[in-house]
Write a structure and sequence with these properties.
It contains five helices and three strands. With 112 residues, it is an alpha+beta fold. A three-stranded antiparallel β-sheet has the order 1-3-2. The chain is elongated and about 75 Å long.
Length: 112
């Protein structure tokens, strides 16, 4: 199987997850440490069920991990999930830096 489509799917999932302000707020909260889903729901002023749905999207994207002990589901940030974005951004930055370097070389040649 070609790794490019799979990686593209992962990038798409991460961007989709980060595209929602509620999910970004959840990530902000869990970036400080583990938080229960019920604690996440209170300041967001959304139902527990809606919070769980957001958590599921974040889990599928690889940005968050949750575990259940008894009746309490606790969420933790998954820093490795951000590496997909870091790599994607790094590749684009590298591409544009090479293009700008080449443009600079071409402009320098024209002035000589």
């Amino acid at each position: 199987m070609n790794p490019i489509p799979n990686r593209k799917t992962n990038v798409d999932r991460v961007f989709h997850a980060l595209g929602d302000p509620t999910r970004r707020a959840i990530l902000e909260r869990v970036s400080s440490g583990p938080v229960s889903v019920s604690s996440l729901a209170k300041p967001l002023r959304i139902t527990l069920a809606a919070t769980v749905q957001h958590v599921q999207v974040l889990e599928k994207s690889g940005l968050l991990h949750s575990s259940k002990v008894g009746r309490v589901r606790t969420c933790r940030m998954e820093p490795k999930g951000l590496s997909v974005l870091e790599q994607w951004i790094s590749e684009r930055r590298s591409l544009w830096e090479r293009r700008f370097d080449r443009l600079g070389e071409l402009l320098a040649e024209e002035t000589d």
